[in-house]
Amino acid sequence: MTTRRLLYLLGGSTAYEAFADEFVTASGGHDARIAVLAQTGEGWEKHKAEITQPWTRRGVTQYEPIVSGENGLLNLELASAVLYRATGIFIGGGHTPTYHRLFATEPVRTIIRERYQDGIPVAGVSAGALISLEICQLTQDETGSDKLQIVQGLGLAKGFVIGVHFTEWNALSEVLEVMSKTRTMVGLGIDEPACAVCENENFTKVLGRSVHKIEMTDFENMAYGITIS
């Protein structure tokens, strides 16, 4: 029997309610134990209520944060223990390069991938969504570099790239640049109230609204079409 693997890619925090029913159910309902990966303890405390209230309204009582310490590093023993007992994994938003450093590099990367392959649902919002894919972009604004950087993410889905806060941040040019640099034919622009759902690594549906599917027809002339769902 094939394990059902679910990945939830949220464009922004206003999608928390839209995806909560499915994510909580996939994570075990009332028995769910959700690991919340956040940039810092301060960030977790600041956003804790808005992240968890949609879950608690659906009966979830167990969630555990994984955050960096004052030295900017993870307690790897604690992080591993939390991830291995989790029935759902949620990756928060913030500074994408920091999220990538903490959670999309070894040894945490392998643990998250193992849990996902075992059927534990993974969700990511904004930066958390970006690092979930094989192709992850780090923008000039976040790195201080003079150009957009492409790095390897968690690799929980491949074959497409994404942009988050898509309409709100006018991110089409960024997604097209990533598609061009990586010769990826498909991009998903995920608006803040939307969640793109992937099952067994394939984009299957939208929760909330809206996801813009960008399909490149000619890289040399940057010709593309967009459909919205």
In short, what is this structure?
The chain is of the alpha/beta class and 229 residues long.
Distance between the termini: 31 Å
Strand order of the largest sheet: 3-2-4-5-1-10-11
CATH uppermost class: Alpha Beta
Strand content: 25-35%
Mean of residue pLDDT values: 97
The number of distinct β-strands equals: 13
Count of individual domains: 1
Shape: globular
How many helical elements? 8
Helix content: 25-40%
What pattern of helices and strands is seen along the backbone? Answer: EHEHEHEHHEHEHEEHEEEEE
Low-confidence stretches: none
CATH topology: Rossmann fold
Find the CATH superfamily: Class I glutamine amidotransferase (GATase) domain
Plain-language structure description:
With 229 residues, the protein is of the alpha/beta class. It has one domain (6-228): 3-Layer(aba) Sandwich (Rossmann fold). Helices cover 33% and strands 31% of the residues. The strands form three sheets. The chain has a seven-stranded mixed sheet with strand order 3-2-4-5-1-10-11, sandwiched between helices.
List keywords for this structure.
four-stranded mixed beta sheet, Rossmann fold, alpha/beta
List the helices and strands and how they pair.
Blueprint: E1 6-10, H1 16-27, E2 33-40, H2 41-56, E3 62-68, H3 76-85, E4 88-91, H4 96-103, H5 108-117, E5 122-125, H6 127-130, E6 135-138, H7 140-143, E7 149-152, E8 161-164, H8 172-182, E9 186-190, E10 194-199, E11 202-208, E12 211-218, E13 223-228
Helix pairs in contact: 1-2, 3-5
